[in-house]
Structures are given as C-alpha cells and as structure tokens.
Amino acid sequence: MLKYQILFKLQLQEKLQKMLEPHAQIPEQELYRLAHSIKGTAGTIELPEWYSEALRLLMTFKEDGQRVFDHEQMVIILEPLYELIQQSNLEPEVSETPPIHKIPFTITSPVNTAKARTVLIIDDDIGLLTLLKDELVNQNFTVLATTEPEEGLALFYDKRPDCVVLDLVLPGMNGFELLAQIQDLCERHFIPVMIISASGNKETRMHGYAMGAEDFMVKPFDLDEFSLHIRRLTSKRIKLTELLLLDSVTGAYSMPFLERELERYQEQSRVHATEVSLIVIDLQGLRNYNKTYNFAKGDQLLRQVSDTIKSSLRVEDIWAHERAGRFYLLQPGSSSAQSSAFIDRILYSPKVASLIPAGMMRIRYGVVPVFATTDRSQLFDQVNQQLLHLHASLEQGTSVTSIPLQTSSRMNASINAEPAIPEPVVSESTSSPALAPKVSANEPLRLAIIDDDPLIRNILERQMFDLEQEYLLDIRVYTDGKEFLNDPWHDESAQYVLILDRMMPRINGMEVLSRLRGEANSNYTVLMLTGVDDEQGITEAIRAGADDYMTKPFSMMELEARVRRLLGKVGAAL
C-alpha cells in the first residue's frame, strides 16, 4: 500500500497548498468535498488516522454550506492535515513544476487483448485510481483509467468498455452528470456502471440506481470485494452480448457472431479446403471528429459508413463492428489478394469517400488468410498487426495501390503446417472532395531509447533489436532529452514509442514529456523509467501523460512485455 499512500499524500499536499494561497477564498462546499474524498480513499488504502480526521471535518462542514473562508481561517482548519503529513516519515514535497491535472493513462493486462474484459475507471484521486487499476490488472482485466471526466467520456465512446467505475466527486463535472451523458449508450450496449462514493446515504444510492447504475460501493471498501463485483458485472455483460446478433450503433453484426461464423468456416475448410480471408478496417480520426462535433454525430457517421460498405458486400460476407471505428469483414471463398482488391474498390469508391471528412479522417485496412488450424485469437492479432506497419504518404493526383508486407519468419513458423501463405496486404484510404484517392506506403514504427547511462542504453538497444523480428522498427538511441529533441527525426509524421529516463542532464525526461504532450499531434507513446524510490517521479510522470512507467532496476523480460503492449496500443488507439 505504500505507493498508493504516497500518491495520496502528494496529491493532498498539492490541494492544501492551493487552498492556502494568500488571497484564496475557499467556499464551504469545496472543503466538504475535500473531506469527503479523504474519507473514501484513506479507509481503502489503510490510513486510519486520515479517515478519522476526514470524519471530523465532515461534521464541521455542510455539503450545501454557503460560508467562505480566508487564508487565516484556512491555516487553522487545515493544520491537523498538515500535522499528519509532517508525522509521516515520507515527508513528500510537491515539485516546483506547475501541476498538470489531466491524468489519463491506459494499462492493458498481460492476457490476450482480444479476450480481456475492459474496465474504465474515472476517479479524481490518483492514489485510489492507481490502486484500483493495479488490482484489476492483476486480475487480468484491461484497464482504462483517468481523473478527467471529459477524457473518461472520450474513452467510453472510443473503447466501449465492459464496465464503468465512476466516482461521484469529479473536477468540473460530478459523476451523476457524466452518467447522464452515457446512460443511453450503456442501456443499448448493456454496459454496467458501478458508482463508488464516500457518501452511502439512501438518497444518493437511490438516485444512482434511478439513473441506471448497476452497482454502488461505499468508500472505503475491501479490494477483494471490489474485484468480485467487477467480475460479476463484466461476466453478466459478456453473456448478454453473446446473445445479440447485431451491433446497435452501426447495424453490423456483433463480434461474438463473427467469431462463431469464423469458427464454422474454419471447420468447413478442414473438409473442403475453402479459402477464407479476414479483413480489419479502421476508421482513423473518429476521436477527433467526436471532439469537434459530438458523439451523436460520430455514431451517425459510423452508421452511414457501415451501411454504405455493407450495401456493396456479397450475401455470404460477414460484416461486424468491434468498437469505435474498428470493423471486421469475413470473406469465405476469397483469397487475401481477392479480398484486398474487393475492399479497395469499395473503400475508394465515391460513395465512401464522400462520407469521410477531408483532412480529419481516413480509412486503413489489413488482410490475412484464414486456415483451419489457425488460432482465432492469434488471427485477430495478426490482422491488427498489419495496421502497425502502415503509414500513409499522400501525393496529390495519384491512384491507390496496395503494398504487400514481407511476412516475418516468426509468423511463418507459427503456421508452418499450412499451405504457402499469401503475403498480408495493407492499405489506406483518405478522402478529399477535389482529389482522387492517394498512394499508401509502409514506414517503420519509430522507437527511441533516451537514457544518459551508457550501460542501460546498450542493454536496452540490444533488447529492442530482438523485437525487429516481429515489428517493422526504426530504433535510435539518445544520451539525453536535448539530443532527442534536436534531431528532426523525432518530429516527423510518424508513430513513436519512447523509452524515456526521467533523470538526465540538460533536458530531463519530464521536460521532454511535457513538450511532447504540449504539441498538437499525439503520436508519442511513452514508457518512463524512474528510480525505485522515486514515488514523486512516478506521480509526476503519470500526471504529465506517461502511458506506462518502470522503476530501476527492472527485469528485461518485463520491459520487453511492457514495450510489446505499447506497440499494440499504438495500433489500436488511433
């Protein structure tokens, strides 16, 4: 629990410092919310003295109180909390770096992501958020976690999680307001919502259930009980969705139906040797479209694109929607080359191109053959890997071509019992009202190692070169952040994964991360390396937008596993 207690105290000290600014005027309702938050988190992370102090404060202030407190009054009010911080051996101090309050991060569990159940957690307390995230990852869940309600809303529409865990006290928007925005989609997709709150009175619980919440847990709560509730909620949703044939947003088939049909055609191919192809189609840029307009407009666009493509399919084709802009097409009786030519004609037709907003969105696809003995989860991994290798190079006035990738030796080895496999095909589509479709081209994913320790750099570089057997990578090594930022290679139109040390001379890892997150594009996925006792550094890295972190010394096997997950994330989170 030590890590979560430190995160809790760091975040709380930052809040107290803001409240004690000389000219601050703090409303009573804000103090009530602070005490409410402390009570819920402190009990869960085993800080009984903080829990007791929160109870005392809750008796002092009212949720709807109208008093306002100045600096001198706040010093007296907050003195017991500061004494608790000073009594700690940790004595955390907040960095002079201006705090960044947007703290989204995504952690996937080590199981197959096609099968892992996804949980979205939205809570403004980073200590409790991290605790719940780590607990569920250990239970083999894929976890999306954020302190920001707007980011949580975007993640909900992008990922369509199997469960939402929602705190009621959030910055800028309370949990009930957020629940009202997702309620309709939760009902249509059978997505359960669990409310977590330090307020467990009957009125609050009844209001939550009336708004559609499936479950309600009062802080503090037992982690084992929390995990059990999540398993129950997600299992219930999986069983319900398996009974459905159609996706309610797009009208395409559901993924469980596609998987059952895939299994059926694999069985048939054992007897009749029928060729079957699986195509993944990705509508890139949907998240920005949703932010520019709204999620209802995004769903409408998805339905229009789905209907247009579906109208051009054969009777035997299986068209399914997974999430956000990701679709799959199963084509029995077609080779990879035939399916590639078939989907080319559809995606680059005027009907589809007219639906895609120029300059904002584009369509990519990948194709793999299906064989009787191919593991289905591995098959989805293979076809999604095709999207990782694709980078568009747009040249005005040229026509579309499909460029095959070389099949890796590892992929051949995994299916060496099959006939010769056609090379997987990937392509990309963009639309512009006045232009013909464009050329697509392949470009490696860029991986940068940035560390001032020559021994660590050498070890990391050798370890990452091993991944080139599976991924198309361009790997570069830098001694510090300044060298990386001065290289024009880092700021081109490409996708980057960074292994970034936090403590370096000249420009350190935190400065690099802050600069990258401040840019308009978001094509950097960052794994931050910190010292084993640097809990404050971990907190700052998460707050600044690091996608994952590791503490030194670390296991090379674990590092490679983390990097693999981030490479997968680059392909999925577009």
From TrEMBL:
Tell me if Phosphoprotein is a UniProt keyword of this record: yes
Q: Which residues form the HPt domain?
A: 1-98
- The highest taxon in the source lineage is Bacteria
Any one Pfam family match given in the protein's UniProt record, by short name:
Response_reg
Tell me where in this chain the PTM Phosphohistidine is found: 36
Q: Which residues form the GGDEF domain?
A: 274-403
Residues modified as 4-aspartylphosphate are 167, 501
Instruction: Give residue ranges for domain Response regulatory.
Output: 118-234, 446-567
Which CDD domains does this one have?
REC (cd00156), REC_OmpR (cd17574)
Keyword terms of this UniProt record:
DNA-binding, Phosphoprotein, Transcription, Transcription regulation, Two-component regulatory system
| The protein's name in its UniProt record | Response regulator transcription factor
